[in-house]
Amino acid sequence: MSYQEKSVTVSLVSYLLILGYYLTRIVTMFQDGGLVSSQLFGLWAIVIVGTILVNILGNILANIVLSIVHAIRTRTNKVERYIADERDKLIDLKGEKIAYITFSVGVFLSMLIFALGQPALVMFGLIIFFSISAEIVGSISQIFLYRRGF
Amino acid sequence: MEKYTVRNKIRKLRFQNNEMTQEQLAEKAGVTRQTIIAIESAKYSPSLELAFRIALAFGVPLGDVFSYDPEDESNQIINK
Whose CB has fewer CB within 10 Å in chain B, the N or C terminal residue? Predict the structure, then answer.
């Protein structure tokens, strides 16, 4: 498994954790009597900032841990080459394209639901959900391409 | 239109060059070992620049490493 592949896996795990947290909080809100705008705005802020922070911190931590594991396994101080070559860049682009398409479909569906009479809060809630889901789909497709070869 | 595919002789050339490892070739070509594996198993067709770098690593012309043949012919060659 290359460094890039490990990095994508770490991102995938962090996105899954964030999505899990988001859905849990939304379900809790519904059980407590429905969506409250003040609570929902706070949750969106946490999710957006959390996604960025967890992703960055997760990658830094994974970098450190993987370097230590690599040094122990190879018994050398030689640093593993963290280069992104042309195949990595192409896989990254394909993943981004798939994520973009997923997000676009998600935004369309969210707007459709709003047009059908649902409140704006539901629409924005769904847009946040689809933005994280799109990243998950993009990461999964990248891992699939890495596993397949291209 | 007849379908063509990119074939390569990287495995053979590595063997002929003092059994060069995939890691060594990757280092010479400036890519990851996973990319060399993908190219060698014909799952990924490299860019022209990378193809030249791989040929340079072996010290042979590009045509000695890569060829562009009809798919049927490549199957026959692989089966030989």
Answer: N
